[in-house]
Design goal:
Elements (H helix, E strand, L loop, with lengths): L5 E3 L4 H4 L9 E5 L13 E5 L4 H11 L6 H32 L5 E5 L9 H7 L7 E6 L3 H10 L4 E2 L9 E4 L13 E5 L5 H14 L5 H6 L7
Parallel strand pairs: 1-2, 6-7
Antiparallel strand pairs: 2-3, 4-5, 5-8, 7-8
Helix pairs in contact: 5-6
Amino acid sequence: MGAITVVDNTFATPLLVQPLRLGADVVVHSVSKYIGGHSDLMLGAVVTKVSDLLPKLRYYRANVGAIPGQIETWLALRGLRTLDVRLRRQTETAALLAERLRTYPGVVRVHYPGLADHPQHDLAARQMRGGFGAMISIELDCDAATAERVCAATRIWTNATSLGSVESLLERRARWTGEEYLPAGLLRLSVGVEDAEDLLQDLFQALHQAGLTVPELSRTGAPPPAG
Ligand SMILES: Cc1ncc(COP(=O)(O)O)c(C=O)c1O
């Protein structure tokens, strides 16, 4: 009773989900991610429609929080102007990758709310508009070392934390302290704006290099791209 509901809407952005309309009291965003969109600023935002909370949040920001710099706010506003086109493309590519990756023998599971068999697909379909976002995770049928080799072998995807940028990133989440409980072969993918087929082929060649079966390549006998 009386609890304040806070939603982290960083992954979805206000374009795909509007939590205040769905009943949340407060929404937080890491603006460093999709809103900025270029991995070049650190900024956060708190949004609320609860008028009592506003003075408290302002007080807290003024006395405890970090005050945003001019360049960060300028970059965030500039990023916002292209959020729609970036996210549209990233979401479309993510949906395609999720679909293609799920049929892969070395990939035991694809987590993406846009997939009909995702446990919360129906909820996502009710709450999200214009797509299911550009974050995917895949579980590989391998140990930690092999999964790390996949991350190291990509050429377009960068093996790094963070998300929401125009550049595609991937990482093995269980490498982090506190996240060791995750499957050793779980990779989180933040899909960028690069060509979808290039992104897919890059993942395939990385899986191949790490020794995971790549049926397309082994069927045709084609070697992974050189370079
Ligand atoms: C969903 C989500 N919310 C918030 C944050 C925190 O962002 P920041 O590092 O800008 O504080 C992150 C960071 O990865 C995140 O993934």
